[in-house]
Amino acid sequence: MLDPIGQLSPLQHHLLRELDLCDLPAPETGPESYAARDLDTDEVRQALPTLLWAGLVEQRDGDRGTLRLTATGAAALRAAECDELAARLSAVATFAETVERGAAPRSAGHALRRLAEGTWSLEQAEAHVAAGDDA
After folding, report:
1. Which of 21, 38, 57, 133 has the largest count of CB atoms under 10 Å?
2. pLDDT (tens digit, 9 = 90+) per residue, 106-115?
């Protein structure tokens, strides 16, 4: 999918994920809604014009209105999630080559689980196996 703003920043991705769950008040009118979601209202205010311009988010009732994810925003969010999962799957496949070279099963299993969950990078998983750590 062609995304009008390119790759989403971590903040944009986080905000779109939250808006996918529910509409949010404008940052000025409901800062507690953003704090509860671990979002900084100043950062959201800075990111908002780009998201509005790109049509990923809409704001109803003017500047103090409700923020809502658009269909384009939902598609951009799904595309970003798909890219993230494809990168993770690629890392798992690459890691399988490391395991084929003779890693200890328990160490490799632990590293593979962390890699698949997305909590470790490929480099971290390979370093864990190379060090012979056993969990």
Report:
1. 57
2. 778 888 888 8
Per-residue 3-state assignment (H helix, E strand, C coil) for 55-112: CCEEECCHHHCEEEECHHHHHHHHHHHHHHHHHHHHHHHHHHHHHHCCCCHHHHHHHH
Q: Which value, in Å, is the radius of gyration of the alpha carbons in the chain?
A: 20
> CA-to-CA distance for 66 and 63, rounded, in angstroms?
9
At residue 19, φ and ψ (nearest 5 deg) are: -70, -20
pLDDT digits (tens, 9 = 90+) for 84-121: 899 888 888 888 887 777 767 777 888 888 888 889 99
CA atoms of 134 and 23, how far apart (whole Å): 45
Report whether 52 contacts 58 (CB < 8 A).
yes
Residue 25: its H or E element: strand 24-25
Q: How many C-beta atoms lie closer than 10 Å to residue 81's C-beta?
A: 15
> Are 40 and 32 spatial neighbours (Cβ–Cβ below 8 Å)?
no
